[in-house]
Amino acid sequence: MDEKTLVDIHGKVIGTKLAAMARMNACLSFKHLSKFSSVKDKVMAWVRSHPEETHLISRKFHPSAQFYAFNLNDDYSYLHVFKSGGTTVQMMTTTKKHTKSSEVDNRKLVTVVRDPIDHFLSGWAECGSRSKNPDENPHFTLDTGINERIGSWLDSLEDQIASPKQGADPCLPHSFPQSSFMLNPNKLDSISPNLEMIGDLRELNAVLTIANFTIPPNSARARSASDNPKKVERYPRDMRLLSDQTVNRICEFVMLDYLLFDFEPPLACSESLQSYVEKIWSFEIKSFSQGGK
Q1: 88 near 204, Cβ under 8 Å?
Q2: Is 137 exposed, middle or buried (0-12, 13-18, 19+ CB in 10 A)?
Q3: Is 212 left (phi over 0), alpha (psi -120 to 50) or beta?
Q4: Contact yes or no for 86/70 (Cβ under 8 A)
């Protein structure tokens, strides 16, 4: 598909970004941005019309308003999705300081995403490693199996997204759906209008390059969980250790990520995802037919 065709299909700005990704062989990012730009309006319209689906997005507070972004240059800011490359980008920037949502000004936002379940488990592991008394915490204690620990973690996450409480664990947003970070801080049932580009974490450098950010030579990557054997052992991110019931429950919690981005869900989640797709498609058809009367 040539650049002119991409521009015609997706609009000038998105088409230009997709064409740049194609030239750089950033195929994963191309798929994410292409799907996102095609479905986000339909998906978010359905979400807004179903407030009972409390687990899909954080409707009452933005998970990272105070740690919103890193300014890359005069044109772009990097939207900080927790546990998805933010610390690596922070180390590359000049000031290495977060920018509040109110301080982004007119800059466009770029960000990257990773596999939704791996992201969820990475957040759980991060919060476990920060816990002062993990053996006394039902989310992290080794006195119970991993399915029980993840189930307890999900209970707290679902409760906090549905009814935010003061004094709740401030680490919880690390396992929030990545799409929650992309919400408009001033209108939490819609995507930020400044969000211009979404890529894949594995192609972070390509995404930053397209945003005209000069990557410093010999940039060091942020530490990953694999650098800490004790963290890996205590907080495993191996989905094979989880029951199908637990995997499906995680998928339900991060469902919006699967709906908006181009990730293949595990087999245990395929039925749930298909159900949401059918509901959204039905909603769109119904809305269209009603509008035509």
Answers
A1: yes
A2: middle
A3: left
A4: yes
Distance, in Å, from the CA atom of 198 to the CA atom of 111, rounded to the nearest integer, reads 5
45 closest CA partner among 290, 273, 270, 279: 279
pTM attached to this predicted model: 0.89
Cβ contacts of residue 13 below 8 Å, gap of 6+? 196
10 Å CB burial of residue 17 (0-12, 13-18, 19+) is buried
State the sign of the Cα–Cα–Cα–Cα dihedral 204, 210, 211, 216: positive
Query: CA of 100: how far to CAs of 67, 69, 185, 236, in Å?
Result: 6, 7, 10, 33
Span 137-180, pLDDT tens digits: 999 999 999 999 999 999 999 998 888 887 788 899 999 999 99
| Strand, coil or helix: 69 | strand
**Backbone angles phi and psi of 199, in degrees to 5:** -130, -170
Contact 195, 33 (CB under 8 A): no
Residue 141 half-sphere exposure, CB side, CA atoms within 13 Å? 9
Q: pLDDT band at residue 228, thresholds of 50, 70 and 90?
A: confident
% pLDDT > 70, the chain: 89
| SS3 assignment, position 108 | strand
Strand pairing report for 108-113 and 187-191: unpaired
Q: Mention every residue, 6+ apart, whose C-beta is less than 8 A from residue 243.
A: 147
DSSP H or E stretch at residue 57: none
d(CA 118, CA 101): 26
The one-letter amino acid code at 103 reads E
